[in-house]
Amino acid sequence: MSREKILCIRGLKKWFPVRKEFLASIMGGEQKYVRAVDGVDFDVSAGEILCLVGESGCGKTTTARTILRLIEPTEGSVIYHGEEITTLSRDSLRKLRIKMQIIFQNPFEVLDPRMSVKSLVGEPLKVNNLAPNERKFEEYVLEALREVKLTPPEDFARRFPHELSGGQLQRVAIARCLILRPEFIVADEPVSMLDASIRTEIINLMTELQHLHGLTYLYITHDLAQARYIGERLIVMYLGKIVEKGPMEEVIQEPIHPYTKALVSNVPIPDPTAKRKRIFITGETPTPIDLPKGCRFRPRCKEPIPRCDREEPELQQISKGHWVACHKTSVKLKGKEQQ
Amino acid sequence: MKVLEIENLSTHYLLGQEIVYAVDGVSFNIDAGKTFGLAGESGCGKTTVAKSIMRILPYNGLIAGGKIWLDGQEIVNLTEEAAKKVRWRKVSMVFQYAMNAFNPVLRIGDQIMEVIQQKERCNKEIALEKAKSLFKEVGLEVSRLRDYPHEFSGGMRQRAIIAQALACDPKLMIADEPVTALDVIVQGKILDLLNKLQNKYNLAVLLITHDLSVIAEESDHVGIMYAGSIVEMGDVVSIYKEPLHPYTAKLIGAFPSVVGEKTKLEFIPGAPPDLISPPKGCKFHERCPFAKPICNEKRPEHREFRKSHFVACHFAGELDLRK
Q1: Phi then psi for B193, rounded to 5 degrees?
Q2: Of B294, B242, B184, B150, nearest to A262 (Cα)?
């Protein structure tokens, strides 16, 4: 891809310390960590929609929040337009946040029920001192409301959150984020709380705004089918690591990693005549505290090879832009090279 | 054999001086061994239908009209005492939010045994044996009967709830959003388990969910609910392949898929009507792209348009719903 990379993430880690039990703390037991994000590398190109999928607890939200430094990373680097942001001071970070925004999952919880839509949408302007006077302030707010299609904006500006439906609330949340004219937006499951009939409306709105303002999204979802309709590239995470990443259609139609395969095969299809075979994987996702040595998917994998017990697989490129972290693919790749 | 027959059920909630017409004239049947999928968006009355069948409506809810036959027995007019005998033994329910369905301070095994002891009037030993066999049935280790709910993962809790629902060998199982909060892989396993149990016990299942993808894969017959009424009902293939009601067509079109061609996803502008004062004519007419004057005036009848394919729309069969 020739597009400019606006964000480069390298070796990003976030380990949360586990509180020690009383006895262990006296005996000086070893400090344990929840390895929520455990070495993640990827790039985000300008103007793309990059989807991050995985099951609950795989670290997708932690990854996104660590990138924005809503949570401090344990290790690794996040480079935004050539600038390392993991070491920025609070002041410079605040300026940067104007360019990097986030839309949260649950609009019912995000918006203060006592604030009017006008003050909710305008709050970021106030915080960042971006409105020179009251007249400008109002003008910006109304424009943002118009952009998210809450019309007539004058009417909506006066309302309070309890007077709005879920879809309208999410539009307010989007307006609140757009009013700063950001460049990069993390959308963390923005439609999962909404009814199916209005999901598409919000998704369409988000893509329209993307074209209009040249936005870049990191779109987090647990729903692969939804990701397919929104994004161009897909990253699949499992237990804090990327197991597969690549062009959307290629990864979904021809997944390589056994975890991705199982994930895709279990997505229900809204067609009663479609026959799919679910691939089951045994057991449940372990907690990312005591991770197995070697590949972290090994305990649930159907076809492990001895190497999986010893070494953790690295991401390897198997075709243009398609990366997989599995020893079996690397064996196959080597076989191909030798032929 | 019909396990459940519902005829013209209406359930209302009293809200101060006002009445919420939550369920308004719903009729459907479920045969033994079959799954009926009841689909619709939040607030359309799906769960209220389930609660009416279980007779567990909240204090301000009442069945205002209609009949429900469960395994041949009419249950709307039963006294609370008599309804208790039906509950769990003829009909049981797998609740939404498996996370919260168990009491967090009691062992899971004790909670399952409580149901068995209460309903079957048996002693602890027999109940324990039954609980053990139920746990095996749903794929849980027997030793975990002594665990507390927090020690179970979401998928395991859902299995435990299914075990509890099977405790008294019911004829009908109501599954209200049984997999909504679960990850896809766990979701697949739970649906697979439900299928196996259904075949083994010839259970009738009422599957309630907003997720049309799950309904498509699991149901034999489908009812699409909107604002308290079933707008379209029929066997699963004809509903998905030849929908007659604009709402059904739009709703199906709103669901993305991982297979097949990427088509444009649909959405329905506006919001469902307020059920305290539902619109006079067709309840969908305000959001319907095909609405004509008559839709505002006259409520469309629920009619059998094709064999076993019911629809409530004045213009069924005359519209090009692909637009």
Answers
A1: -60, -45
A2: B184
User: How many domains, in total, are found in chain B?
Assistant: 2
Closest-CA residue in chain B for A197?
B267
B107 domain-assigned: yes
Question: Are B181 and B55 within one domain?
Answer: yes
Within-domain flag for B155: yes
CB pairs under 8 A between A and B: 120
Within 107-136 of B, beta carbons closer than 8 Å to A belong to: none
Kindly list the distances between the CA atom of residue B191 and the CA atoms of A274, B50, B66, B236, in Å, as whole numbers in the listed order. 16, 19, 32, 17
pTM of the full structure: 0.89
B70: tokens are 């469960």
* Claim to verify: residue B159 and residue B279 sit in the same structural domain: no
In A, which residues are within 8 Å of B181 by CB distance? none
* Residues B170 and B123 grouped into a single domain: yes
Q: Which of B3, B32, B45 has the alpha carbon at shortest distance from B230?
A: B45
B141 at the A interface (CB within 8 A)? no
For A90, counting Cβ atoms within 10 Å of its Cβ (0-12 exposed, 13-18 middle, 19+ buried), the class is exposed
Q: What is the pLDDT of residues A225-280, one digit of tens each?
A: 999 999 999 999 999 999 999 999 999 999 999 999 999 999 999 999 887 788 88
Residue A28 lies in a domain: yes
Angstroms from A149 CA to nearest CA on chain B? 12
CATH classification of the domain holding B169: 3.40.50.300
Task: State the residue range of the domain holding B297.
Answer: 244-323
Signed CA dihedral, A183, A188, A192, A193: sign only: negative
Query: Is the minimum CB–CB distance between B143 and chain A shorter than 8 Å?
Result: no
Question: With bands split at pLDDT 50, 70 and 90, how would you rate the model's confidence at A1?
Answer: very low
Residue B74: phi and psi, rounded to 5, are -75, 130
In a domain, A21, yes or no: yes
- CATH number, domain with residue A34: 3.40.50.300
